[in-house]
Amino acid sequence: MPTRTPIAPSSVDPADDETSSHIATIGHAIAASWALLVGIGLLMLGTGLQSSLLGVRASLEGFDTTTTGIVMSSYYLGYLLGSIRAPHLVATVGHIRVFAAFASLASSAVLIHVLFVNPFAWSLTRMISGFCMAGLFVVAESWLNDGATNETRGSLLSVYMVVANGAMAAGQLLLNAADPLGSKLFITISVLVSLALVPAALSVRANPRFLQPVPVTLREVFHAAPLGVVGALLAGTATGALFGVGVVYAQLAALSLAETSVFMLVAILGGALLQWPIGAASDRTDRRRVIAASALGAAVVCAIGTIGFHDLALFGLIGVVGGLSIPLYPLANAHTNDFIEPEQVVGAGSRLVLASGLGAITGPFLASSAMAALGAAGFFWFLAMVHLLIAGFAVYRITRRAPVPVDEQSHYAVFPAESSVLVSTLNPEVWDEDDEPVFEHTGEMPVVVVGE
Hints:
The chain is mainly alpha-helical. The protein has 15 helices and no strands. Helix 3 (65-93) crosses helix 9 and helix 9 (226-252) packs antiparallel against helix 13 (328-337).
């Protein structure tokens, strides 16, 4: 009679089961939010194309450099106003109605650029576009947060950043799809923004609960973390200049349309890719040193860029600039969180978004003025100066206050290139163990901790 071989006991590591379960949970959360992520991707695809297209078209239409800067600054003015007003509209009218109204208005505003080719009309429509985009992001981030749990919230924030920045970068390549002097690219943007409404409109998800964060004033945030506010303001100035008039620099530098699209693409991807290593480094040491090092590095690279490079050297240089510059706002946000209580994080984060917005309004205008005075090199000279100011202020603050112990620091959170005043609700650290928000306003005003 044959001898039976005993079956060996299972040797599955419980840790492997836990990892697999965690991955499955995250995958389920992403699958549940697919419609929203697709909508965000379409919005950013259109937004990325629109910003670069207008810069190129303005140059082709004979707008002077400073005028183009004013047009591009108007977007950030609208975005700032929308960031202030949109949460109130969402709370009173509802998420779906606000999303539908703003998507329709943003889609229509794009086409006005074709009908009225003059700086005043373009400035007005850019302001409308910025207002609408701020409202759309308030709704999108509310919905995204509503579908998240403590286990998935951090991963969803990372996926959100990848989708938003990836789509914005891909939008640069669409510049090559048609003649920028024609209307096809504007129609394409309008279609993309309109299609972004479809996934959200067909979603069966109900309106999420609108969370009202504990109010914190900008003055209180500044008293708690001066570098956080100044860093956010100047980081907004730098990114506003980079995204707003980077294409204007490309035109002055005699780059072709294809080269212009790659120039902007590399800048965005550089910022997306370096967020994680720079953020991880800031979690392991005095975060102010990382802010100072990143800003100083960006200033040095920008100063080198004034020499004038072409082809791969220029693309590599702008990729490094984007990689060192774009993470500065999330670093400022994380630094601020190191000095405030968890219930104040969302309220303080909303103030930093507004500070960044104020900086972004000035960025395109000031950078374009520098180019008008100094030529193409003025773009890099301006960026070098802004980053040098950030680095200098960070070094100054290091001398004024002892560092927060590393084990007491908050964790760095990645942010997309554009986000709303509610993006900090996606930070896992502002939710308790029962998956309830610690930042929701209950009528009692906390006192912001002022650093020594």
